[in-house]
Amino acid sequence: MRNLIAFAAVAVSLLATPALAQNGPPPSPYAARVDRPTCTRDELKAASAAYVEAQRSGSLAGLPLAANAHFLENMATVDRAAGLWNTALPVANALSVHDDTRCKTFTEIVVTEGAQPYIIGTRLYLHEGRIIRVDSIVTKTGDWLFNANAFLRYTRAENWEPLHPYQRTAPAEMIRGANAYLDGFSDKFTDIPWGVPCARLEGGGYTNRDNRPDASCEIGMPPGVLYLTARDYLVDEEMGTINVFLRFGSSDTGGADSHTFRYVDGKFRQIHTLTAIPGPQADDNGAMSGGARDPNAD
What we know:
This protein is an alpha+beta fold. It has two domains: 41-140, Nuclear Transport Factor 2, Chain: A; 162-290, Nuclear Transport Factor 2, Chain: A (Roll), CATH 3.10.450.50. The protein has helices at 2-22, 41-57, 148-157, 171-183, and strands at residues 65-73, 76-77, 93-99, 104-111, 118-127, 130-140, 194-202, 205-206, 228-236, 241-248, 255-264, 267-275. A hairpin with a 2-residue loop joins strand 1 (65-73) and strand 2.
């Protein structure tokens, strides 16, 4: 009798499964994220170069887009025709990194001319030669520590050349160190791989304006407990770079953010952040605008 009851329970659960599935969310109309995508580094480089030209021209027509590619801006789904990539912008600088394991690219674009300056961080996700996802974080005047002039000035002064193989850091350690930094917003006792010299370029605010050889990025984080969630990684071992897309706070509604870490010999040397959250502004020298207090100084 006991076996019969168990068999009946299993049968009922199997019969109920299709009905439950029918009551779930409808299938997505967009290309699915692939957990083991395929691509080559040359394909990724060609795609990121095409994206930069697309932003200059205001048209994605030259990109190898999948028919059902998913488009996002500041981590919200948008129509292809609604994104900033449809606006021709005078690109002052473009910096790209490529992950041929996860088949992702990340490009920082700086726009200083025109009525509205921008700093844009865009990811392309590829699979089998097609772009299945275009994901842009767009920051502009009013966003956290924004200043496109300062961002351009200090990015151009930094070394973003590919690293010698002996200077590279293992991808797993790059992810561990980035997570330790991001976890530091909620736990101030994490083991972060600080290097010297190191400078943080945060929207436009810059931590080594005097070009000190002993400068560190260990200059403090906002006080309190703040969780950085929904982390998505891109690792370029040749460039010593890991880029993390994440949200400040809620994994569904927290502010859109990009953190890029440049490693040399296993330590942080350059950190770039873009945060689409309203906040204080930086000036053209990378200091706090109007002499305001640095919110990260605690």
